[in-house]
Design a protein that fits this description.
Elements (H helix, E strand, L loop, with lengths): L5 H28 L10 H55 L6 H22 L2 E2 L2 E2 L25 E5 L2 E4 L4 H5 L15 E2 L3 E2 L5 E2 L2 E2 L7 H17 L13 H13 L3 H54 L3 H25 L4 H5 L1
Antiparallel strand pairs: 1-2, 3-4, 5-8, 6-7
Helix pairs in contact: 1-8, 2-3, 2-7, 3-6, 6-7
Length: 357
């Protein structure tokens, strides 16, 4: 029978003790975070899938954040278009009422003040902003888009935001698309108030769609020459920039209505009715478009939420620990450690003082 040295016994006890302590420490770390996998070596195959799931989860969070931003801009745009539509309907009702010959000049002049307030409301909507970003400036969203005269200083840029994998959605509508007619005025129609609405570059980089052209000249030859001049300006300017194109603005329509009411000219008011109808129809079309975008964003967010729940469930299945099993293992390993202490105390030789006692 071989003799076991004290050194060998001590080494065996130390090994068993360190192993029990290490296992108990690992269980306590897992218990602190209720995690089954706290390092890649705990589950190498599961860790690869876990990293992929974390990447997808981060992407979902980013897309949801983008969708919330897009929703904020889209909802404010829809609200602005709704208010603008109501203002134009109110202006149309006033124009319909004042187009008849039932009212005198005093009444029309008083109504013109109400229309003037409607014009100020339109300008306020046109310059609406979120924080320091204007809603209808296109790419130039840090620049006030419209001056008090209706000059447009923005551009035609449409901002797109990625709200899902390779899926982008516009979050704005440029101001020139909302507040200016999409069609050109036909055949240089004679304007009784002496106003034509020709887009021109103005000092400061803005685009002004109003240019005063005298219409009091009864000479047909002069009128023809004037038309040729305007046509020449239109052909001589860049086609891609929208310059030289006759496009009437909402501001010009309101000013026309105000001037007609103040001058007691119901014929001009009658001529304006169809143009107001066209503006209202255009706003309704734009509201339909932005409403479709809002529905798309909501649907996408709902899909992202469902996908995020699925990813979170799969992550939990891989890395989260079974609480009952984990704390059962901790209790069992604690008993193992106590058994090692007890066995070591019995196995190792007592020291001299214990022997003398």
């Amino acid at each position: 029978m071989s003799r076991v040295a004290d050194t060998s016994s001590k080494g065996a006890v130390d090994f068993a003790l360190n192993k029990a302590k290490g296992r108990l420490e690992e269980l306590h770390l897992k218990g602190a975070g209720i995690k089954r996998v706290i390092r890649p070596s705990d589950d190498p195959a599961g860790n690869i899938e876990l990293m992929q799931l974390r990447t997808r989860d981060n992407n979902f969070k980013h897309y949801i954040k983008n969708a919330n931003v897009a929703m904020t801009f889209s909802e404010l745009t829809e609200e602005s278009l709704s208010e603008l539509s109501e203002i134009l309907v109110k202006a149309k009702e006033i124009a319909v009422a004042q187009a008849s010959s039932l009212y005198n000049g005093a009444v029309r002049r008083s109504v013109a003040e109400e229309v003037d307030q409607l014009g100020k409301q339109i300008l306020g909507i046109a310059n609406r902003h979120i924080g320091n970003r204007y809603l209808f400036s296109g790419y130039k969203n840090e620049i006030r888009p419209f001056s008090s005269e209706g000059t447009y200083y923005g551009d035609s840029g449409v901002v797109y935001v990625e709200i899902s994998k390779d899926f982008y959605i516009p979050v704005n509508i440029p101001g020139d698309e909302i507040f200016y007619q999409s069609e050109v005025l036909k055949d240089f129609d004679y304007d009784p108030l002496g106003e034509r609405f020709v887009e021109n570059e103005v000092e400061g980089g803005g685009r002004n769609f109003t240019e005063q052209v005298s219409s009091n000249n009864n000479n047909e030859e002069d009128q023809l020459q004037l038309q040729l001049q305007v046509q020449g300006q239109s052909q001589g300017q860049g086609q891609g920039q929208g310059r030289g194109v006759q496009r009437e603005s909402l501001f010009a329509q309101i000013r026309t209505l105000i001037n007609a009411l103040r001058s007691n000219d119901n014929v001009v008011v009658q001529d304006l009715l169809e143009r107001l109808d066209n503006s209202i129809d255009r706003i309704i079309t734009l509201r339909t478009r932005i409403g479709s975008n809002i529905n798309t964003i909501r649907s996408t967010v709902e899909t992202l939420d469902n996908s995020q729940i699925s990813v979170s469930a799969r992550k939990s299945a891989i890395e989260d620990a079974d609480v009952a099993e984990l704390f059962t293992d901790i209790t069992k390993q604690d008993q193992v450690l106590k058994a090692v202490y007890k066995t070591g105390a019995q196995l190792l030789n007592q020291n001299l003082l214990d022997f003398l006692r």
